Amino acid sequence: MLSLPSEDAARAAAAELSGMGHRLTAVRVHDHFRFVPSSFWYGKPSMDPELEGWWQVFSLAVYSGYERNVLEPFLRSERIRVAYVARAHGGFQQGCSEGHAVTLEGVFTRDGLVNDRAGAEVALPDPLPGEPVRPPAGPSWNYGGLGEPAAVVQAVVAAAERIYGGVENAPKAAAWLLDEEFAFGEPYETTGEFLGDLSDAVAHQGTCTDATAEVVPFLAELVCDDSIAVGSRLILLDDLLRLAASGPSAAVSRADRTAALGNVWQESAAEYLTRRAISRELPQLLSQWGDEIDAVRFALAALVVLCDGHEQRLPSGLAELPAPAGTGRADVVALMAALLSGEEEHLKSALDRLGSWLPRIAEKAASPYVESRGLALSVLPDLVMEDVASSTTQAEHHLP
Q: What is the per-residue burial (b if ≥16 Cβ within 10 Å, else e) of 52-79?
């Protein structure tokens, strides 16, 4: 689905997609069903008023002859190509989905249909492109497991009681831990399930709200709590990493849209306040650096980088982290160093290196509206936590 600023632009984009082999293309005014009397949406307010007066292109592209898993490198190049078509006509790619060709063709809404190429399929290259070879991950971290659910829950509740005293003093994101119903509820079967509920309470689906910043000190307290298993502390650090990167992540995901609408991106107040709240907790989080295992130091270093690292010096250099040359971890550490240096040339070089073996980074970088620094900050949490999860020797206790 593409969004374009005018009907002419939408029709031109639809013609281009049809020329690429797309089977069906339709052009409709944005929120088309708001103007259809038989529709549930008829007369209802727009779900995206910023696009009032815009047009949309819907297309169906069919690929066959191979299993889905071997098509990913090719489909990635197709997503990049379609996004380019949208930008070339002043718009942006608004979304895409996949499914069985017969099913999708059957449910395709033909209102505004402009091209119907019965039986058309997008030609596949021969040979198909393959996935790039990933470098070795790096030495194992050996951080152990997440801890038993009951023990972790008990430690988290004890921390909440220590900080807030009772439900009446706790922010909503932590108050449920002190609620009587929670205390007598069913025990958690896994530690990951509990930590997932805690994360969702702090930021539903990873989205910062006005209440997120006020619970950051609680998360920091948990990260520093030695009674909580290291694996669980790393998951809590992962929460902080993602919260700190929420602004840059949103900027990257909406870069084409922001440019097409002629806007200037600005992170929300909730995102800014959350990141500043995390910055204020850095001295406490780094105070035990000398006693922390390397996996925790690795995640803490990334957190410093995400929170304007020039304001808070790392207790020791990035060079002390176990990241041998030629490993993927070395590339991640190089990205952190480039972000701390603030030098654009170093940052682009680090991103190019990572993009050479992580195609999702190259795909995001394909937009001319995605800034290098924002891209680097947005991908850093995943890079760090994927490394921590994949290289542990405790296979039965992988981080999610």
A: eebbbbbbbbbbeeeeeeebeebebbbe
Other CB atoms within a 10 A radius of the CB of residue 28 amount to 20
For 334-387, the pLDDT digits (tens) are 999 999 988 999 999 999 999 999 999 999 999 999 999 999 999 999 999 999
The candidate with the shortest Cα–Cα distance to 123, out of 25, 22, 24, is 22
| Structure token digits, residue 19 | 């020329």
Compute the distance between CA of residue 6 and CA of residue 107 in angstroms, rounded to an integer.
26
| Most distant CA pair in the chain, distance | 68
**Residue 318 zone, left/alpha/beta (φ > 0; ψ -120 to 50; rest):** alpha
Closest by Cα among 298, 364, 363, 360 to 335:
298
What percent of the chain clears pLDDT 90, i.e. is strictly above it? 83
What does the pLDDT look like over 55-108, one tens digit per residue? 999 999 999 989 998 999 999 999 999 999 999 999 999 999 999 999 999 999
Cis peptide before 127 (omega within 30 of 0): yes
Q: What residue type is 343 in one-letter code? A: E
Instruction: Determine contact, residues 28/2, Cβ cutoff 8 Å.
Output: no
Q: Which two tokens stand for residue 59?
A: 């297309």
CA distances from 258 to 13, 94, 198 (A): 19, 12, 32
d(CA 56, CA 35): 14
- For the record, the structure tokens of 184 come out as 């007598």
Are 146 and 191 in contact by the 8 Å Cβ rule? The answer is yes
What Cα–Cα distance (Å) separates residue 117 from each residue in 11, 17, 19, 391?
16, 11, 10, 48
| 385 SS3 class | helix
Whole-model pTM: value is 0.91
